[in-house]
Amino acid sequence: MAPVPDPNNISGGAKRDEATTKVPSKDPKKKDDKKEEDMSEEDLQLKQNLELYVERVQDPNPELQKTALESMSSFESLGYRLTGTEGDIGSWGHEYVRNLAGEIAEEYTMRQGEESPVDDLMDLVQQIVAFHMKHNAETEAVDLLMDVEDLDLLLKHVDSANFRRTCNYLTSAAKYLPGPDDMLVLDIAYTIYIKFEEYPNALQIALFLDNMQYVKQVFTSCTDLLRKKQFCYMISRHGITLELDPEMVSDDVDREMLQDIVNNTKLSDGYLTLARDIEVMEAKTPEDIYKAHLLDGRVTSGPSVDSARQNLAATFVNAFVNAGFGQDKLMTVPSDSTSGSAANWLFKNRDHGKTSAAASLGMILLWDVDSGLAQLDKYFHSNDNPIIAGALLGVGIVNCGIKNDCDPALALLGEYIDKEDSSVRIGAIMGLGIAYAGSQNDQIRSSLSPILNDAKAPLDVIAFAALSLGMIYVGSCNEEVAQSIIFALMDRSEAELGEALTRFLPLGLGLLYLGKQESVEATAEVSKTFNEKIRKYCDMTLLSCAYAGTGNVLKVQDLLAQCGEHLEKDDIHQGPAVLGLAMVAMSEELGLDMEIRSLERVLQYGEQNVRRAVPLSLGLLCISNPKVTVMDTLSRLSHDTDSEVAMAAIISLGLIGAGTNNARIAGMLRNLSSYYYKDASLLFCVRIAQGLVHMGKGLLTLSPFHSERLLLSPTALAGIVTLLHACLDMKSIILGKYHYVLYFLVLAMQPRMMLTVDENLKPISVPVRVGQAVDVVGQAGRPKTITGFQTHSTPVLLAAGERAELATDKYIPLSPILEGFIILKENPDYREE
């Protein structure tokens, strides 16, 4: 027992009148006297002090109240509970149980330190958890069980009334727990969801844990074919490759149909349904985006800008804006006209510009594999290598995220990997990387790995081969690919290590471990033996990829320490460290806001290398989510005296506004286009950013997160991070001859839609409410999950941070999270009013 503090020493300055200090006088009744006499002196002292505290708590002076309360709490209720008679724990009320739980947690930690037994505590914990779970205090039950490291107890106490709230709290808490606790917590949530047949939620957690056994278990536990179709839509949105086997779906015809959904073959149709509904099918030209007529007259004056660069910019703008619509004004020729405008546009670009121009056709026909391959076919008969290279890349882009049993991309691109011309080889290699990202296809590995260790292969071919292998095996921790890339890095000469493209080798290596935390350690050890020119760069890239999306605070501190160093000019490793800050912290809102603040500091105190990467880092944190504060910071940096900082800021303005049609960013970029009208490089960046803001005419997003920001698509993040690494050396890569690296963004492009379909997967229109999502985890009752909503009929667009809910009881959605394709089944209990 803790010593009882003397009540008369209570400091508190208030003048104590006699009445308060007096202990209540004894009642003259003999019985009580008898009791008093039975008490030992110690107990008498205790009783008197306690009575005094009770009076003090009612004192008007807050200081006195506080001290009295603290003194009372040192009467450990836990000690009494353990020694006293055991009655119903709840009869003492909630506050008592809550207090007890707090003391148990502290006592447990103490005993763990002393290694003394905790059985008596665990009996109490059982009672407290049972009490909390009955009285809607699931969060407190979970907290207590986390403190005493015994979450398995939950499984006994969850029931159909409280399991949702419990699991919601578990999944939200997991973001803030250190490993491996976070995984254990999610495991429990998964088990509870499976127990109550809440399969869509269980599947989400299985995808979050990247546990294919769990994904399989969801399919085998569920018998309803319609629900399985919904699972397939969820898996296809996450972008992983999954082969359904007879255990998961027994019927062959059904399995083929479900595999079609997983392969994402319906994405193009759904996207075009949305486009027709919102009436944006009309093709747009780059001029429609630039809106030069809104600016002063000075922009168009004088042919000061080199026109090939301008045409190249227009190619990208056209590709981004009309992405997936299947028609545009530059590349796709209307069938009735014989004079091909496409051919003319292609030849308005110089050499490597033709590669991007030909590939842009793939972007316009995005996700529509059949007509994409048909329209790209004509370029394969060209004698011009850059055009063939572009066609190969275009094939990869068309197939991005769409799987196909007959593997058309592999069949077409495979034979070009070992051609003479290096631009053709890069086109084929990059095409394979985009088409098969995340598929872990061994056939491609066996044809790309040899390139890495081929002494005759040029550096750029090797760099893109490493990058494509990183994409195809993203997050797989594949040893063999890692070995090949490590050897390729060790074989580079001093001169080659100074080249801009060499940075793709460590990046390819990092992508293998994307989000896989400790698994990277062995490779990170090996990287310490590299040439010192690339060693630190490799180290930072591996660290930032491995902890991407984990929110790991310690890693953020490590990276911040790297950014704070003031080094010589030619050190390049601080760039990826700054990007790493954003990659690690982007997973949840709190860390994200803290990171934006830290970057402000980095911007003020960092060296030039660091400042150049900060805008890109901000672009990643708020991708497709234009936060006003970040927008203002980037707007300020876009006029920076250092042109590299300005270029990065302009590209990032495009990234944070990607696919939002944000009017404010569009206005900023228009003004920048007149401000930089004489500077070809900066103007090029402004044009690219304008294309990004109007991407897919405002129907697409680049955010790698989906399912209410719970899941992070690894392939999407890989595409974005690759572009950002390329932007660390804007002049050599994006403004050099490797501008087609911009097409890696296609990996992250997804329609930001919610499309409802009926049981036969045909689109149906139902009213839905769309509003700002509200975090209701752990709140009492059934609070509203969205605020400030508007009612629309599906299909609808969802902006960042928005959530949808059905505005009718006529249908029941088969997934609790209304994003992407949602199957509705008719509600049997529905009665028309």
Describe the structure.
This is 26S proteasome non-ATPase regulatory subunit 2 homolog. Belongs to the proteasome subunit S2 family. InterPro entries: 26S_Psome_Rpn1, ARM-like, ARM-type_fold, Proteasome/cyclosome_rpt, RPN1_C, RPN1_N. Helix 12 runs antiparallel to helix 13 (about 210-220), helix 14 runs parallel beside helix 15 (about 250-260) and helix 18 packs parallel to helix 39. The strands form four sheets. The chain has a four-stranded mixed sheet. A three-stranded antiparallel sheet has the order 7-6-9, with no helix packed on it. It is globular and about 110 Å long. The chain contains 41 helices and eleven strands. It is mainly alpha-helical and about 850 residues long.
Q: What's the arrangement of secondary structure elements?
A:
Elements: H1 18-21, H2 30-38, H3 41-57, H4 62-73, H5 77-83, H6 94-114, H7 119-134, H8 138-147, H9 154-157, H10 163-174, H11 181-195, H12 199-208, H13 212-221, H14 225-238, H15 252-262, H16 267-278, H17 286-290, H18 307-321, H19 341-346, H20 351-364, H21 369-376, H22 385-398, H23 408-414, H24 422-435, H25 442-452, H26 459-472, H27 479-490, H28 494-497, H29 504-512, H30 521-527, H31 532-546, H32 553-564, H33 574-585, H34 589-605, H35 608-621, H36 628-637, H37 643-656, H38 663-675, H39 680-693, E1 700-701, E2 705-706, E3 711-712, H40 714-727, H41 733-737, E4 750-751, E5 753-757, E6 767-773, E7 786-793, E8 796-797, E9 802-806, E10 811-813, E11 820-826
Parallel strand pairs: 5-11
Antiparallel strand pairs: 1-4, 2-3, 5-8, 6-7, 6-9, 10-11
